[in-house]
């Protein structure tokens, strides 16, 4: 409609302008927008008008939001339902790569030079992704993400039990709230007592470094 207005204005201001040229430009725009089935343009004197076939437009509108999938697989090997489901699975593949690259798994950056070490690094990340998918199934009814859940579980710690000033074991406090629900949903039973091995482990996160004793 804006193009037709511009063309009509130009034709009125330029008596030598050719109407057929204006028609050609509008028809090219109609073809580009794929609306030629229900929209036409015609000239009356030196003025252009758009004509819309409302019945055809209503029929075409029924397919708004629909899409068509094409494949070279024969129908006996893959039904239309299978083709559709596999296409929808691509969203999960994209989400998997996004999770591994930029989310809490962080496959990048890779500070490795040897090919076998790089493959091993990516392999470990793939295993970690499989674990996150399993946890996602366990926690799907809790309305929390895997990343949020892991952050909640990171607050679980052990308390050293000392006998004669010597650490002999660790006691894990009974979990409560969301942490308790996370363990129950994943069918994890927390041991009451853990041996104290006096081993220091440094873990690195985005915001801080923690030094834990086990």
Mean pLDDT equals 83
Question: Assembly state here?
Answer: single chain
Regions with pLDDT < 50 over 5+ consecutive residues? 206-214
Total E-strand runs: 7
* Cα gyration radius (Å): 33 Å
Number of helices: 7
Order of strands across the main sheet: 3-4-5
- Through-space gap between termini: 73 Å
- Proportion of residues in extended strands: 15-25%
Q: Kindly name the structural category.
A: alpha+beta
Helix content: 40-55%
Main sheet record: 3 strands, antiparallel
Shape: elongated
Helix and strand run: HHEEHHHHEEHEEE
Structural write-up:
The protein is of the alpha+beta class and 214 residues long. It is built from 7 helices and 7 strands. The protein has a 3-stranded antiparallel beta sheet with strand order 3-4-5, with no helix packed on it. A two-stranded antiparallel ribbon has the order 1-2. A hairpin with a 4-residue loop joins strand 6 and strand 7 (209-213). It is elongated, with a radius of gyration of 33 Å. The chain starts with a helix and ends with a strand.
Summary of the model, kept short:
Helices cover 46% and strands 17% of the residues. It has 7 helices and 7 strands.
Topology:
Layout: H1 2-13, H2 19-32, E1 39-44, E2 47-52, H3 54-61, H4 80-102, H5 115-138, H6 146-153, E3 159-163, E4 166-171, H7 177-185, E5 193-195, E6 200-204, E7 209-213
Antiparallel strand pairs: 1-2, 3-4, 4-5, 6-7
List keywords for this structure.
alpha+beta; 7 strands; 214 residues; two-stranded antiparallel sheet
